[in-house]
Structures are given as C-alpha cells and as structure tokens.
Amino acid sequence: MKQNNSLFVQTLLAWFHMNGRDLPWRHTQDPYAIWLSEIILQQTRIAQGMEYWLRFMQKWSCVDDLAAATEDEVMRMWQGLGYYSRARNLHTAAQQIVALGRFPDTLDAIRQLKGVGDYTAAAIGSFAFGIPAAAVDGNFYRVLARYFGIDTPINTTEGRKLFASLAEAHLPEYEAGDYNQAMMDFGATQCVPKSPACELCPLEETCVARREDSVDRLPVKLKTVKVVTRRLSLYYIRCNGRIAIHKRGSGDIWQGLWTVPEAEHLSSDLKATALLLQKDVKHVLTHRILLADFYLIERPSRPSLPPDFIWIKEEEIENYAIPRLMEKLLPTPALPKGGSLE
C-alpha cells in the first residue's frame, strides 16, 4: 500500500488535526484502554460512554485486573449502559487476553476476541498498533457516499463491498489511525445525517453530492421492515363431526384464507373448556413471526360464534384454502380422532 496523498485525504486529515475531538483514549496507545473504549462505544453515545470508560479504567487499570473481576462485578459496573451481552463479552475477552499472555496485535488475532467484529478490530488495530486497516462504520458510509456521489445502497452486499474497497483505497498507510478517527469525527460533527453545514465544509468545492444537490438523499439505504412477533391462540371446535371455520377479511394476515376461531371469537366459558394440544408452534412470515397455541374443544351442540363462521365436515377442510400454519397444526397426532358426541 502506498501513502495516499489525494486531496480528499489531505483535506480530511487537516480538518481533523484542527477539529478532532479530544477524547482520553486518544492520548494513549495502550491497546487495553483503546479496546475498552471501542466496546463501550459500540452502541453508546460518547458523552455517556466516557463516564463509564473512566470508571472502568479507575477500577481496573489493566486487563489482568478486569479478567480477575467476577462477572457480577463487571455487570454492576456496566449497569445503565444496556446491551449487557457487551459486558459479558468484555469480561470473557479480558480472560482471553490474559490467557494469551499479551494483547493480540494482528487483525486476525484481535478478531478472535469475544465481541470484536471487523470494524472494532480495524479500529483497535489502527489506533493501538498502526495497522493499516479502515474501520468502516456509518460515518464512513455517509462521508464517502456524499463526497463521491455513490447511490449504491449501503445495506446490500454490493454496497458493503464497494464502500470497504473505497475506504481502503484512500487509506494512508502510515496514518491509518488518524484517517479512521478523522472519518469518525467528520461524520459525527461536520457531515452529519441531517442538515449538515455544507457551506462551512472544507470539502464543499469537490463534493459530488453538494454539486448535484443530493446531500439529503445520500447515503442510500434500502428500507427494511421490522420483524415483529405475534401470538395466536387457535381453537379447533368439533361438534358431531363438523368443525367451525371462517374466511379472513382484509387488513390482517391470511386475507382470503380460511382458519379456525381465535381467542377473541369465543366466550370465556367456551375457552375454559379447551384442551391445550400444542404450545408455541412457530411460523415465520415475511415481516413477522407467529407463535401459536392450538386448542381442541369438543361440544355436543354448536356453540355461539360470530355470524361469518360456517360448519363443515372435518374431512372437507381439504377443500378450503388454509394457511400453512393450519396445515402444521391440523394433522397433529395430539388431535384425537373425532366421533359423534350425541
């Protein structure tokens, strides 16, 4: 890799040397202190994270001390930061480092630490050991997408590869740490997600997004729908060889398909007679996960149900379009074979 002298990199580093944030872990090359800051800041704002970093460093000033602590002690110190798996991973990684006898000093070895991924490994490696690796995070995506006018979605395989390649291509071999920190600070304080002060930006004249008035549209991220979990209780009501089903209307899952009654269709007295056959049967839809409980109710006479329900012979269910979940539940061996209750 050759030293990168592009105008983009020169301008970015000059800005950083004048405007970079003064953070305590930037005044050391102690890999323990740097690693600790990166784990704390994975999903935490700097203002809050700094307080915790100082507490940790005061109580456990070296990795041996942290490794010797109990998990309960580490969890108590972490209290309030959330995402508690980070604290458990931190403690495990400290013990890994002690067992190794030193802090790992290659990217591959740093990645072996519990809770450390590609970004964190590159950050630690470049800050503590000067390893020429780009620590590509959201700030990298935003700055690079705007400056070079890239509209490839950042949350696609193609996008991740493209931005990683671009970040590495502009990486100055002997200033990797400053380059990564510059990108972080520039994206966090100058090229911010919303309403950046472009007129004050040192890259304004050469920024493609500024020239093409596309700053607010970059970077591009494909919309993702949050997957939610929904619980269902399905009641197979059998009466003299017939079962109750209804066609589901619009505005909900399974529109136009036939299903057995759910809890809201039944009276409390009727539900009280139900026999639980299966619990937490999992079914995955595009944007939600269903967990269904399946009940059997057998009655000598037809109970009162909403008017849209019909009664069909059990064997006729094959003539109706039903959801896959119903197919999973209906043939269960737990469902006793019906007979006349008269």
Structure summarized in a few sentences:
The protein contains 14 helices and 6 strands. The chain is α+β, with helices and mostly antiparallel strands and 342 residues long. Helix content is 40%, strand content 13%.
What does this structure look like?
The chain has 342 residues and is α+β, with helices and mostly antiparallel strands. The protein is built from 14 helices and 6 strands. It has helices spanning 7-19, 31-40, 46-59, 63-68, 71-78, 85-100, 107-111, 118-129, 138-148, 157-169, 176-190, 208-211, 268-271, 324-329; strands at residues 228-239, 242-247, 258-259, 275-284, 288-298, 310-313. Strands 1, 2, 3, 4, 5 and 6 form a 6-stranded mixed beta sheet that branches. β4 and β5 form a beta hairpin. α9 packs across α11 (176-190).
